[in-house]
UniProtKB/TrEMBL annotation:
SUPFAM superfamilies: 4Fe-4S ferredoxins (SSF54862). Ferredoxins are iron-sulfur proteins that transfer electrons in a wide variety of metabolic reactions. Pfam families: Fer4_15 (PF13459). Residues 1-29 form the 4Fe-4S ferredoxin-type domain. This is Ferredoxin. Its cofactor is [3Fe-4S] cluster. It comes from the Bacteria. PANTHER family: FERREDOXIN. Keywords: 3Fe-4S, Electron transport, Iron, Iron-sulfur, Metal-binding, Transport.
């Protein structure tokens, strides 16, 4: 499973951080930090990752299986 971020859409709401705090963080500037953008996500994070995709209010996260 992979997730990509549409940086043009992302508004830094941080809902994804709440859903998957081990994957997403909002930095001091209010920008999203996601080190696994486009890379394989560890299986133990799949449920949280899926939640983040489903709850992003602007649909900035895209799931690829
Ligand atoms: S929830 Fe969506 S808009 Fe908010 S920081 Fe995460 S990816 Fe960006």
């Amino acid at each position: 499973m992979r997730i990509t971020v549409d940086r043009d859409r992302c508004e830094g709401h941080g809902v994804c951080e709440t859903a998957a705090p081990d994957l997403f963080q909002i930095d001091d500037e209010g920008d999203l930090v996601f080190h696994l953008d486009g890379h394989d996500i560890p299986e133990e994070q799949w449920a949280a990752a899926t939640n983040s995709v489903l709850t992003c209010p602007v649909a900035a996260l895209k799931l690829e299986k």
